[in-house]
Automatic annotation (TrEMBL):
Alphabetized UniProt keyword annotations: Allosteric enzyme, Carbohydrate metabolism, Hydrolase
An individual GO BP term: glucosamine catabolic process
EC number(s) given by UniProt: 3.5.99.6
Gene3D superfamilies per UniProt: 3.40.50.1360
Enzyme superclass (EC): hydrolase
Name of this protein: Glucosamine-6-phosphate deaminase
GO molecular function: glucosamine-6-phosphate deaminase activity; identical protein binding
UniProt function note: Catalyzes the reversible isomerization-deamination of glucosamine 6-phosphate (GlcN6P) to form fructose 6-phosphate (Fru6P) and ammonium ion.
Gene name linked to the record: nagB
Length: 261
């Protein structure tokens, strides 16, 4: 796990976009894993800028979403398909029909989740997965206590997650769905390269557990310590609980070719 402490969320986003740009230069048909939430928005904006200026093309690739709320109607602005269409697909040149997501309106949820796993495998797996981290350490919607070998499935959201996400629903926690479909921890761990972004003091405790804590289902993101290629981008506030924060800052300064690790 390589940890890069940046001066700002924008700098982290630029570095993450560098990794994605390098991937598509080497593999024009690469498969990207995309996440919702506030953490990756700056990354998508930077990718869009590069596509617009001709520095990057993603036209030959595919993308897979991490998760989706259950039961939100197709036109709901916070349905994750609509969020990804707005924040990611509309900015880049990857065809919209090559951006895939789990079906939160499926009548047979178990079958829909199994089909999504098959679709990811048929694409050759995810080359680079973008992740955020919840304040309780969840990755995707794998809440504390999730099996570290889990696959795509339905999950019940914790009160903490629903409270955190209420800001996207006019601060009305009752409007936040109680269930979601999510890639499992095991599904996420199959990605060849994982890029995790976290910014702000509210994420500091989770970042500490993910990077330096014991591996435990109570902090699901901690399993990333077992992955062979993880890059964590954090600002100084999110890094404030890291015991080795000063080393990570030095690493960022001394090793600008971190993409090759």
């Amino acid at each position: 796990m390589e940890v890069i402490v940046s001066d700002s969320a924008q700098e982290s986003a630029r570095l993450a976009a560098d990794a994605i740009s390098a991937l598509y230069r080497d593999e024009p048909a690469a498969v990207l894993g995309v996440a919702t939430g506030s953490s990756p928005v700056e990354v998508y904006a930077e990718l869009g800028r590069r596509v617009e200026t001709g520095e990057l093309t993603m036209a030959g690739g595919q993308a897979f979403m991490l998760d989706e709320y259950v039961g939100l109607p197709a036109d709901h602005p916070q349905r994750y398909r609509n969020v990804i269409d707005r924040d990611f697909s509309a900015r880049v040149d990857l065809p919209a029909d090559r951006v895939h997501g789990p079906d939160g309106m499926a009548s047979d949820v178990v079958a829909a989740c199994a089909a999504y796993e098959d679709q990811i495998r048929a694409a050759g797996g995810v080359d680079l997965q973008i992740l955020g981290i919840g304040t309780d350490g969840h990755i995707a919607f794998n809440e504390p206590g999730s099996s570290l070998a889990s696959r795509t499935r339905i999950k019940t959201l914790t009160p903490q997650t629903r409270a955190d996400n209420a800001r996207f629903f006019d601060d009305d926690v009752d409007a936040v769905p109680r269930h979601c479909l999510t890639q499992g921890v095991g599904t996420i761990m199959d990605a060849k390269h994982i890029v995790l972004l976290a910014n702000g003091k509210a994420k500091a405790e989770a970042v500490h557990h993910v990077v330096e804590g014991p591996v435990t289902a109570m902090w699901p993101g901690s399993v990333l310590q077992f992955h062979p290629h993880v890059t964590v981008f954090v600002d100084h506030a999110a890094a404030s609980r890291l015991q080795l924060a000063s080393y990570y800052v030095q690493t960022a300064q001394d090793k600008p070719d971190w993409q090759g690790f």
